[in-house]
Amino acid sequence: MIKIDKIITSFKFLGSGFFILIIGCGLDIDSTEYSKVKWIDNSSLPVVLKRPSRLKYSWQSKIEGEPLVNRFVLPLGFKLTNVKKGSFGEWLRFLPLKPKGSKIMLFDGTKKRFQMLNAGVVNIDIGTRDLQQCADAVIRLRSEYLYSSYQYDKIHFNYTSGFNAEYSAWRAGKKIKVSGNKVNYYSAPKANDKLYSGFKKYLINVYNYAGTYSLDKELKTQNIKDIKAGDVLIIGGFPGHVVIVANVCENSEGEKAVLLVQSYMPAQSIHVVKKMGAKGAKVWFKVKDLEKKGWSTLEFSYESTHLKTWRSN
Q1: 69 partner at 20 to 30 Å CA-CA among 86, 95, 163, 307?
Q2: What residue ranges do the domains of the chain occupy?
Q3: pTM attached to this predicted model
Q4: What is the CA radius of gyration of the chain?
């Protein structure tokens, strides 16, 4: 496989056109140097990266879908930020997308009427019940990453009541009984407890009793200067809303821009959010705008105080 230092050498001698051709043919993303590559500053050129073989998306037996990172052209003068191998940020960056033009679908199989914020649909199932809404989608993505990297002990979420639902307990055969405000574990081992199908049943249980109110209380405040993929913007409430940062780029001045991913009500396809009324790169939300005036679409409005991150990364 071509190494990155050889690609850069080719660029120096053969010119920018051939450099682009080499990237399109394949980049050794498994190299220890991949996170240090400086991408060419040209808003007309897409980033083309090969999805690392170590990344798993367990809802697919064979990964199908263009990596999120390759779909969206970077703003002029920006490059991708570095991400740690095996991190949540790297996993989100390579989420598989459905083909261009795919519509946001609702849980009942119908198309969402409002498609104005649809920049791209993640190739992941919705379910057949009205459960995987905004907070549930964030819980799903976070849990899927931890499940795919065998970090089972880190998969736990609070119900609105405050009860902590642990996937490790579920895997061990314990189920959860809810009776009014009383919640407790009881022993009811199933044959699929340690299988992916059992993991999905755990998530459905969490979707029923968790939401933005409980998720907001589990997260910690993030400094806007440290914003990274995997962070969320959340307003906890009944209803509230939450979106997750799926990719980050920056320019030489340290200015950052991010891609946002969300679901909404009713339960629907997890999708990349398109900006409204903006020229040029309509998917990249500038962090300086969040600081000054906030980010708004017809479905959400956020300020910098709404930025939070996970307590364990």
Answers
A1: 307
A2: 1-37, 134-143+153-210
A3: 0.86
A4: 20
